[in-house]
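SEQUENCE-TO-STRUCTURE ENTRY
===========================
What this section holds: a protein sequence and its matching fold, both as plain text.
Tokens: labelled as protein backbone structure tokens, with as many entries as the chain has residues.
Question of interest: how does this chain fold, as expressed in backbone structure tokens?
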Amino acid sequence: MSFDGNKLCQLLGIKIPIMSAPMAGVTTGSLAAGVTLAGGFGLLSTGNSGFCIPTTSTSIDSYNSFKGEIASARELLGTTAGLPLPIGVGFLGWLLDKDEEGGKRLLMAALDEPVKAVWFSFGQDLEKWIKFVRDYDAANNRKTIIIVQLSTVAKIQVAIRDWKVDIVVAQGNEAGGHGYTSSPPVKVLVSSVLPLTTDGGPLILGAGGVATGAQVAELLNLGVSGVILGTRFSLTPESRLGEPQKKALLSAGPNLSVRSMAFDEVRDTMGWPRGVDGRGIRTASVDDYERGDDISVLRAKLQDSQKNGDMSRAVIWAGTGYSLVKELKPAKEVVEELRRECLAHLKN
């Protein structure tokens, strides 16, 4: 049994309908390349930096770091510069909007490679950036796969009807990292939007809390064309997640993944669109925030804990399936394991 005939595999030229999420501060060129080499599809993230025209040392370093990760992925994948690169790159729409000229520069850095796909999420005007890519493709006689991540039936309906994207990622409430507080669980979300699709329309993928091949199979059985995993791939040697964070995540007990504004409030990383919060491991900072402690005090405590290597207040993004991951494995082994488990459950 295989995934022959799967529409996502046909569209991306992959063997397994699994994609790694573009996680800011976590994904690397080696992680994206590892997923692709194993038969899935890997994505890089431009993250929270690099969206300015490089006029300062910080923005120049961010831009060069992004280019370095692209080069690393290309080397591992064995592709020549200028030829298509079989990975994708994720962009945060609200940061593109914040500095449009810098955003265009970073987008062009990916499109000029050229990468196979771009992913847009969390923006008030994603259609503008979709058009930017389409115009670039038309001018250069190319076809870049466009992916959008959305969390409500209404928004997904617009993407299907008006935006003419290639792939829509339906992100459920279980997803680690940033997401919309009001989003339904992934199974409810995909079950609600799949009837809205038409032949020739965008493929629907599911994301949120997925950590095992059995869960991948469940979503495929609902009718999605593929599945996104984030937390599972953050627990690989190739990810940039710090070793103390990986250790803390692997040793965390069950049911500690929570949605909260505390993660951004305490780190002072606000600016996300209205309705967006984060899902991570419950910490002392979350407890104190929910109790109503002064935010300036919580920020000072976080800084002190970071200096002392204390993980009790560290921000560790984690979807609801984190406790199903028992050990660190290379990205290639993760994809292979997911494939075996998924096919076994589909067969059953």
Notes: The chain has a mean pLDDT of 93.
